[in-house]
Design goal:
The chain is of the alpha+beta class and 353 residues long. The protein has two domains: 5-114 and 190-246, no CATH class; 120-187 and 250-346, no CATH class. The protein is built from twelve helices and seven strands.
Length: 353
Amino acid sequence: MEGDTQTAYDMEKVIVSAAGGPAFVSTRIKNSKKVGQKIIKSLKLKGDGSFPKNSYSASSKWNKYFGPGGAKGATLTPKTDLFIGRKRISLKSGSGGARLMSGSPNEARATFYSAAEKAGLTSDKMIKNLSKHMENLLSSTNMAQLGIKGSKTDLKKAGKFASIQILKKADAAHHAFKNDLREVFKASSKFANAFTFEAMTGDIKFGHNSNGTAEYFLVTDYQGNAQLHNAFSDSAYVKKIASQVQPDVGFKSSQNVSAQLRSPTNPKGKSGYYTFFSAVGLSIKMITEEEINKGLLLNEGIFDFFKRVFNRVKNWLSNFWSGVKKAIGDKLEDLLAFMTLEPQIRFNNNIKW
């Protein structure tokens, strides 16, 4: 929070008043008229002072990422605090820190997807690592010493064992990919900068030319010692803020089967493909039941049965995976929905501007 919030609001009015806007004298800021004039003069600000509307519409892209129903209410409060001429200014006043953004889960998630897209971290760049884990999913396993005989009952038990083993490998692949993802985002300065820039400006949230999007950041104490930074052109300033923010991204696994197909772009869960676990589970059930119904072939051991099941599952999943890659394309949110992963973002929300 911006220290004494009411004093910070007063400072907005003081600056706008000094720029020819509605007259205002603060009882909280000593010599407020001179302070406002000092800021306008030292920063060479030109044009009349005014205030933005209370809210601005979010872009369709932002609403898509935000979640069902889109952004509403206070979430649509502009990043812009005041105008001086055509400059859209976010004011950071006082000697303490000030928030980067509201920090609600939905807004953080929308900021995450926007930043990931801007940083080039789309699914086609990550899908290679996932493919590697998929290839390791059904690697050969020695099952010759299981001691399972070849009766119908034993075959059913063997089929259940095969399902468990494959699902264990699927779970291991899922966790390995989740760790890969976290490392990608942890190591990406591009993501940190893009996340910080979007949280500061609302560039994607409101649109590049919207009055709700802040371009300039006016940082001042209550004595009028001020600086002005253009976040659109001053990448060094954005990096300075990003170094404090240090967004940390983890990925939570969804265990709710009814919600597995849902995503920010697909709130009702409709999908042209199964999720990762539903795909593996379906293939195992289908193939093992078929093989059990066939029974053991003459002169075939239980290990041969396992090999046949594993090979069939592997071939089925390989063909399925090719279709999934085409369906997912370059949309990160669809890749995460397929893997039933939800991004969890933590970041420092008390910034020295």
